[in-house]
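// run 5 | inverse folding | seed 20
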């Protein structure tokens, strides 16, 4: 007898209707057992696992005396641990990193299911914690190989914290800070940490205070204050965290005083440099990995400044966007006593220099990018300066530093242009392109009765080196300066034209007479730090002169000769040309062997007269050493245009 065709599917449907309820019941029973197990898990059995996991994570020995829970069944058990010992890692020396007599933590079990350990109530008694960081920045509280957090946390969860009979010791070699003291957290006084020790080998105290952490909303604003007091630094910070002990999100007002900005940098670790005594105030915000300086102002030595900045972390790089404005700025303030002593020692060894020794090696800034817009209303200098104001934009991008829109004003002119440092490959490569307009010879030389005129210039140089001085000492390019539409003292024009008879006559009869200055053109070509005139010429109302020689930037040595001719008949010519020597910072001028002088005088002219008369009469056997023939004319228009091109 055959089975009907529709009988088999009906049997299958009846079969699954019988099994499905039973499978569901089994799953529910398993889930119930799991929930019961979670609620009654014997935490004491996890002691060995906890020791093993912590030892592996911290790369040191961890020992736990016991782990217990308060109730047999609950999903928010209070877990108590006793006699906890975490040894220091080998590099930190002997002793313990952490010792805890007892600690209890209320742990929501279900948070563990999602991979988070977020106790909301913590009580610690009888603890001693020794925080150690070496000079390289390696810290025992940061497991080796750990990566910095890249995103925001899920927010604070701690609503109750009690800490009693606890000592904290900090040994931070990178900051130069060693302090130790008691930490208490209770419902009456809140958080209190008062420590004594040293900062940069000077006596120091560190005080931290915070609000109470008892029965509070963990996401509510949490007030805090911190103060470090030492001869090397006085610094206070008072603000509010976004939640209890949320050090990644807060805002604060900061005030600091120190003998040098470098001492403040020891605490904030922003890569700042040594300066003169500093006093600053600032309003800052910290959001995740980013810092926002909404306002900063104060003084460094004689300099006064205000500004704002944003410092953002993008992967491993740091991006800075800042604005700085100084009502007055002294560049000497940007070096501390040690740096100034070293500069004085260098000057004593090599003499004064015009080219600055500013370091342009960017090897330590390979992870930093950014833009800083700066301006200074007034420039100061102990030795005096022709510059009055300064402004520009500094940009750094993957070890390429550009200073653009540079404007340095003078009393009657300004310098503009760009500066670029490329340190991506090999040694730093410096390139400068600067123009000078509106300056006067009166201001530049400082002797308006001697010479005057409008000055313009164009400097295009490039070279390699770790400092500006070293790079320019091996640079190539051009350096040109011209003066037009001016005047020159008649006796100076006579000396330039090597007209001795005219110089003597005008020194006696009209020492204050002046003649026009049609042009002064000093157009130097540079190759490997050696500047050669191309050309060097002067055209006055009574004489024409042309120069030869060189300026060696490595040492800033000058060796230039000026030979000239008078536009009128000279009864007696000066035997030798004018020689300019010395250095850029201290040039010397000699006329016919008369020796260095600021300007011609009757006494010096007598010496010139004797030598020149001897040459004319054939008494002096040494012929004049004139490397170039004195020109009759000089093309001012074309020479000026070429120099400024």
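// decoded
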């Amino acid at each position: 007898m055959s089975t009907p065709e529709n009988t088999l599917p009906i049997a299958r449907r009846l079969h699954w209707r019988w099994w499905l309820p039973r499978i569901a019941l089994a799953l529910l029973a398993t889930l119930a057992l799991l929930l019961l197990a979670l609620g009654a898990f014997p935490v004491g059995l996890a002691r060995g696992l906890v020791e093993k996991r912590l030892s592996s994570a911290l790369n040191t020995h961890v020992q736990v005396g016991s782990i217990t829970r308060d109730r047999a069944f609950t999903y928010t058990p209070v877990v108590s641990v006793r006699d906890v010992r975490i040894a220091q890692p080998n590099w930190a020396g002997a002793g313990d990193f952490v010792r805890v007599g007892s600690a209890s933590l209320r742990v929501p079990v279900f948070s563990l299911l999602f991979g988070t350990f977020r106790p909301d109530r913590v009580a610690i008694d009888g603890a001693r914690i020794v925080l150690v960081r070496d000079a390289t920045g390696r810290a025992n509280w940061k497991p080796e190989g750990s990566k910095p957090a890249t995103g925001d946390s899920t927010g604070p969860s701690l609503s109750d914290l009690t800490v009693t009979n606890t000592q904290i010791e900090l040994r931070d070699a990178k900051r130069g800070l060693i302090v130790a003291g008691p930490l208490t957290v209770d419902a009456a006084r809140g958080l209190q940490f008062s420590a004594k020790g040293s900062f940069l080998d000077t006596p120091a105290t560190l005080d931290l205070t915070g609000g109470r952490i008892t029965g509070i909303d963990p996401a509510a604003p949490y007030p805090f204050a911190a103060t470090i007091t030492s001869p090397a630094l006085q610094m206070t910070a008072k603000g509010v965290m976004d939640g209890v002990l949320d050090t990644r999100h807060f805002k604060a007002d900061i005030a600091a005083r120190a003998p040098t900005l470098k001492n403040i940098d020891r605490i904030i670790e922003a890569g700042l440099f040594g300066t003169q005594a500093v006093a600053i105030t600032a309003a800052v915000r910290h959001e995740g990995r980013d810092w926002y300086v909404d306002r900063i102002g104060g003084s460094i030595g004689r300099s006064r400044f205000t500004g704002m900045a944003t410092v953002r972390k993008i992967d491993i790089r740091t991006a800075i966007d800042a604005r700085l404005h100084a009502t007055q700025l002294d560049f000497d303030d940007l070096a501390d006593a040690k740096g100034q002593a070293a500069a004085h020692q260098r000057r004593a060894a090599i003499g004064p220099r015009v080219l600055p020794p500013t370091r342009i090696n960017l090897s330590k800034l390979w992870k930093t990018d950014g833009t800083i817009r700066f301006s200074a209303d007034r420039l100061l200098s102990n030795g005096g300066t022709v510059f009055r104001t300064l402004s520009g934009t500094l940009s750094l991008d993957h070890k390429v530093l550009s200073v653009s829109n540079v404007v340095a004003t003078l009393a009657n002119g300004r310098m503009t242009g760009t500066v670029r440092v490329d340190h991506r490959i090999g040694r730093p490569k410096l390139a400068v392109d600067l123009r000078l307009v509106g300056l006067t010879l009166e201001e530049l030389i400082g002797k308006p009765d001697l010479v005057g005129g409008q000055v313009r210039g164009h400097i295009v140089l490039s070279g390699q080196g770790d400092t500006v001085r070293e790079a320019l000492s091996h640079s190539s390019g051009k350096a040109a300066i011209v003066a037009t539409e001016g005047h020159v003292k008649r006796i100076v024009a006579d000396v330039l034209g090597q007209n001795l008879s005219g110089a003597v006559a005008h020194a006696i009869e009209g020492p204050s007479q002046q003649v026009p200055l049609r042009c002064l053109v000093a157009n130097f070509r540079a190759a490997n730090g050696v500047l050669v005139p191309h050309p060097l010429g002067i055209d006055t109302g009574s004489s024409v002169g042309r120069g030869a020689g060189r300026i060696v930037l490595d040492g800033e040595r000058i060796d230039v000769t000026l030979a000239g001719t008078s536009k009128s008949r000279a009864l007696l010519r000066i035997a030798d040309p004018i020689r300019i020597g010395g250095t850029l910072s201290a040039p010397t001028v000699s006329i016919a062997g008369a020796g260095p002088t600021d300007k011609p005088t009757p006494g010096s002219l007598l010496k010139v007269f004797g030598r020149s008369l001897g040459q004319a009469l054939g008494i002096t056997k040494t012929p004049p050493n004139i490397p170039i023939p004195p020109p009759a004319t000089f093309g001012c228009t074309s020479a000026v245009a070429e120099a400024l091109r």
